[in-house]
User: Which sequence fits this backbone?
């Protein structure tokens, strides 16, 4: 059965189903209860599951994550909501020092089954600290997994898969896409949490992205198509670990790679993808992999964000550049 | 300074002293068994220090001076309670039944944990100051949701009391009325930083600002620590919410074996606290009130000596872990980078790499 809903709604329905499936699943965050979250992702859940399971937290991110760790030790699975990307840093210590390491430190006795939801990336005209892309900080930390979603269908299933997973998961939600609607198949997830998805098949250049960038990349692919250039578009979905098998198969076919992300490219997910695919597809590549990224500046005042974020034009420019190499 | 708020049931001279709210409930046999615990943990702490000096441990964090605080609190716990230590709670670990050698594994650098925290209901070491306090509050929130007749205790020091995590823990515990006891060992020094730099008012008074009771107990009086902790745990189990206990004590030794306290504190201060020694105090009580004989004390000393030798043997037997074990439990589920690393190390080992 398929139905149409927004990504925010899909996350809400996914969380609802996760809470119905397992009584140990809790939600904790700022304003997640009565208000339903600032993006309404948890709308109505406190009313239906009670204040003990959908916990309106005092305003302290380290505590939201730090207490979720204790709840995990006790056998609960807490979905922590961080209100905005730029507010996750007070919890950074708990995430990298405890969430990521306690399973190891306890020799496998503690299961750190918890999900940290972070609305990330820009594009909503917000003020500072509301448009960041912190995913690489977490991807670099052993013990964590980092995933993103870009469609309502993925959002609905990925959140359930993340909640059921025994490792801690940083769950990055492209906030600018919360209200866009799409088809959700309520019976068939289609793919696993850590698998990349080929969103559009093509032959000339592989373009990899995730989150909010996917829509931009698909628009670029449509424009390129009109110009007779065929882009294969891959949604990385899982940022740690990366599904390099799917990506390498594509690059081995196209011989050209462009990666799109909103972060500065220094030590980024895109850099890792380029490095890995260079290693794996060296003899197939006909040009160096290029990254289309944010610039190495603090996320700009949002009146400038369209100049900062990868655009259709910048993606197509990178496509042209990789196509100019001839081997 | 110490002041009249201090709960004390036995003076430094080993004399009983009445307190309006707390009464010592322990029998002579029970007090003697606490004395035994304190002597044993002091002895194994000394052995660990020696092992470090001999190059057998990477580091050691001695507890000398804090035995009453740790044994009093540890013995107050019910078997079903859960404790979250930081890294110096060797005495609490002993009370929870963790084999002494296991508490040294971290310092032998063969593991980052050392024991099964669920088996002993005593969590693994937490070295980042204050992190475990939030984890303990979360655990207590789980206990609350389970409707279990259990309490949670967490240990931290005067130094960690400045950490945001500890203060956030106070907010959380108060807001959710979590069944938790915050046990702060104020040993006066955070490495070289005196507790007066951490707090301009006595630490236990902070609790009132968060909306729950705070108690300052003489941390060198094992009877007082036991009674204060026992009551706070009972209150937590009965739904009475959190308590902050400030165990006023002193770190007689160095912060760790890498520290040199002579650079920041004067001998005279140490001498004052040596006169408040927690073990001598209870020994004096046992002699004067219960007529415990030298033979019985000597037997404990002998037992501690035997345990220390056993500890030494156990530690020396701890060899280098299997290199491949670094990949175990990094994740609960399969992970391609773990597989990749494991393959690479296995191949290097195959080639005879060190």
Assistant:
């Amino acid at each position: 059965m398929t139905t149409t809903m927004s990504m925010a709604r899909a996350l809400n329905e996914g969380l609802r189903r996760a809470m119905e499936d397992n009584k140990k699943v809790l939600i904790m965050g700022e304003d997640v209860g009565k208000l339903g979250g600032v993006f309404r992702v948890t709308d109505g859940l406190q009313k239906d599951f009670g204040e003990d399971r959908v916990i309106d937290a005092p305003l302290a991110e380290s505590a939201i994550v730090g207490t979720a760790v204790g709840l995990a030790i006790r056998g609960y699975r807490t979905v922590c909501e961080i209100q905005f990307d730029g507010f996750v840093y007070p919890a950074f210590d708990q995430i990298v020092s405890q969430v990521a390491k306690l399973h190891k430190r306890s020799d496998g006795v503690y299961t750190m089954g918890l999900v940290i939801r972070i609305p990330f990336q820009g594009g909503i005209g917000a003020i500072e600290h509301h448009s960041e892309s912190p995913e690489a900080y977490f991807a670099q930390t052993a013990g964590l997994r980092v995933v993103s979603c870009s469609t309502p269908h993925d959002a609905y299933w990925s959140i359930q898969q993340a909640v059921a997973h025994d490792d801690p998961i940083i769950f990055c939600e492209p906030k600018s896409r919360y209200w866009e609607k799409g088809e959700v198949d309520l019976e068939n997830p289609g793919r696993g949490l850590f698998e990349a998805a080929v969103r559009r098949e093509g032959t000339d250049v592989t373009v990899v992205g995730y989150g909010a960038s996917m829509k931009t990349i698909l628009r670029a692919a449509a424009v390129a198509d009109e110009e007779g250039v065929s882009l294969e578009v891959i949604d990385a979905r899982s940022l740690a670990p990366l599904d390099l098998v799917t990506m390498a198969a594509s690059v081995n076919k196209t011989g050209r790679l462009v990666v799109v992300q909103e972060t500065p490219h220094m030590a980024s997910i895109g850099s890792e993808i380029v490095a890995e695919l260079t290693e794996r597809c060296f003899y197939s590549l006909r040009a160096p992999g290029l990254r289309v990224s944010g610039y190495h500046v603090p996320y700009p005042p949002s009146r400038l964000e369209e100049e900062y974020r990868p655009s259709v034009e910048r993606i197509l420019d990178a496509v042209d550049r990789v196509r100019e190499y001839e081997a | 300074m110490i002041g009249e708020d201090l709960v004390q049931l036995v003076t430094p001279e080993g004399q009983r002293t009445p307190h309006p709210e707390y009464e010592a409930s322990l029998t002579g046999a029970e007090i003697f068994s606490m004395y035994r615990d304190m002597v044993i943990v002091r002895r194994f702490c000394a052995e660990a220090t020696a092992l470090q000096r001999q190059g057998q441990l990477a580091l050691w964090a001695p507890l000398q001076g804090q035995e009453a605080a740790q044994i009093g609190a540890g013995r107050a716990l019910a078997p079903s309670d859960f404790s979250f230590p930081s890294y110096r709670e060797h005495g609490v670990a002993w009370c929870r039944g963790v084999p002494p050698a296991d508490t040294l594994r971290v310092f032998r650098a063969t593991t980052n944990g050392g024991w099964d925290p669920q088996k002993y209901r005593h969590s693994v070491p937490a070295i980042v100051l204050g992190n475990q306090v939030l984890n303990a509050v979360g655990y207590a929130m789980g206990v609350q949701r389970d409707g279990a007749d259990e309490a949670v205790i967490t240990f931290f020091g005067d130094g960690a009391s400045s950490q945001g995590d500890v203060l956030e823990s106070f907010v959380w515990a108060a807001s959710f009325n979590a069944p938790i006891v915050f046990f702060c060992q104020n040993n006066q020094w955070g490495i070289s930083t005196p507790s007066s730099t951490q707090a301009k008012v006595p630490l236990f008074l902070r609790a009132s600002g968060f909306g729950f009771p705070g108690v300052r107990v003489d941390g060198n009086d094992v009877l007082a620590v036991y009674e204060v902790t026992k009551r706070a745990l009972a209150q937590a189990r009965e739904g009475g919410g959190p308590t902050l206990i400030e165990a006023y004590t002193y770190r007689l030794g160095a912060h760790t074996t890498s520290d040199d306290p002579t650079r920041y504190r004067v001998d005279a201060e140490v001498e004052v606290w040596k006169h408040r020694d927690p073990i001598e105090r209870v020994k004096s009580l046992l002699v004067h009130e219960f007529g415990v004989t030298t033979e019985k004390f000597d037997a404990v000393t002998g037992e501690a000596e035997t345990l220390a030798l056993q500890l030494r043997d156990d530690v020396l037997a701890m060899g280098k872990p299997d290199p491949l074990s670094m990949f175990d439990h990094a994740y609960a589920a399969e992970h391609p980078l773990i597989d990749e690393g494991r393959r690479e190390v296995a191949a290097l080992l195959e080639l005879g790499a060190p």
